[in-house]
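seq:
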Amino acid sequence: MENLIQLVNKIQRACTALGDHGEESALPTLWDALPSIAVVGGQSSGKSSVLESIVGKDFLPRGSGIVTRRPLVLQLHKIDEGREYAEFMHLPRKKFPDFAAVRQEIADETDRETGRSRGISSVPIHLSIYSPHVVNLTLVDLPGLTKVAVEGQPDSIVQDIENMVRAFIEKPNCIILAISPANQDLATSDAIKISREVDPKGERTFGVLTKIDLMDKGTDAVDILEGKAYKLNYPWIGVVNRSQADINKNVDMIAARRRENEYFASTPEYRHLTSRMGSVHLGKVLSKHLETVIKSRIPGLQSLISKTIIDLESELNRIGKPIAADTGGKLYVVMEICRNFDQIFKDHLDGIKPGGEKIYQVFDNQFPAALKRLQFDKHLSLDTVRKLITEADGYQPHLIAPEQGYRRLIESCLVSIRGPAEAAVDTVHGILKDLIQKSMNETVELKQYPTLRVELGSAAVESLERMREESKKATLLLVDMESGYLTIEFFRKLPQDAEKGGNPTHSLFDRYNDAYLRRIATTVLSYVNMVCGGLRHTIPKSVVYCQVREAKRSLLDHFFAELGKKEGNQLASLLNEDPAIMQRRTNLSKRLELYRSAQSDIEAVAWDK
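struct:
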């Protein structure tokens, strides 16, 4: 069972070393899950004397005002034999056999954290004491509750101390050791008042009554000690500490314990309570109770640790690994991130992830609809046809069919197809840009490196711009080719139509009559519709080849080429992480180290079932 207290001691020291003090933070805390005993009392309640009596050594700083300004985690280790000594966690491997030096180090370490302002800090000091005269026990000595700030202390210190004490003792795993002086009305006890607020049923509170020997003549504390005046779940324990005169004379603590036992045994009012009074009994009761509580909490603690380890590992994986130090390592990291982004982008185009289907919708719906909306009939009104035919004939009217007129009419219609063709290119370009943005958002590592994200995004968009320009050239060239060379087979029937529609021997006036011009307009419209039908299939092929296929094949080729030319410091600038993410990774790594260590320690400890 004693191994259990040592186990918690070890985990508490690891918590402090790795920054887990049980404070409110964005990180999971193991400190709060560990059973502990917090010593609470007002100034001049005898709190320090109780701790020194349990330890059997005079080691705590004394003085006027608020002396304890940081939590002191006091870990007592019973040894079989040998000289007593103390160790501080912040001074590893240094032993303090002189407890006067321990007192001075507590004061100095407090000032190192709080400065000379006499303020307070929630960062604990860890002190381990090894002695044959102690029981295995861990206590957390909290600053004494006070009502007035002394000179040199901030006005807020009264409330600050109360908030710190409450933050410790309101946690369900905290056992409260409430120190109250017997020579004051219990109703005014600072310790009882604050413990009642957080533990109204007294299920976690041990009451300790000090200064029993200093009560007025004719009064006693029997009703309190028997639980009649104020009932708790656990029996009250009375102690008799050294007087100030004893402290000034450096009265031996062992002798003081002996006198304490004699007081209870020789005082008629307390004689029947002697067996459960005194600092030695207090230490044994607390040690046994702490062991019991720890044992009951171990299964839940193991479950909490296992779950938290999974959560911490998951978040660390999401944040990503820290940056490599060498140039080659940096280049590898950048390349890997870019490849991950590129693969996500391809997955969207290939249908593994959503988004690529929008490109098909352009070719299947938007582009054909745009072609249908072209009003070719405006280009083929009778007046327009007559004008273009006449202009094309010049001084020499056409003999059989107005070939040049046909060409001009067809060209005037086909040129309007350029608009929908360019719009298709631009729309696909917009979809590809959106997919780049979406892919960057889905590339977890890019959140880690905002500078690389900007550079990569700019390079990808520049590549798309180059591809769009090439695609426009190729797509408009398809339209222009239709204007530059007409399909002969379509027009082989025109001479027959011409003969039916008008004999070359007819007058010039008859040759340009409305029926003849209407037949020309119908023929041109049929040809243009045939060309549109062909372009409806060839333009998407051109767009896919020049933009989609090229984006899949070489989106980052130019970026990679430039990347290979960069020096180490330039690569480092790409991997400038958000400081908040760097700090978060450090904090998570420390906390994960803590939980893994605790998990290993708990599994290594065998306890009595």
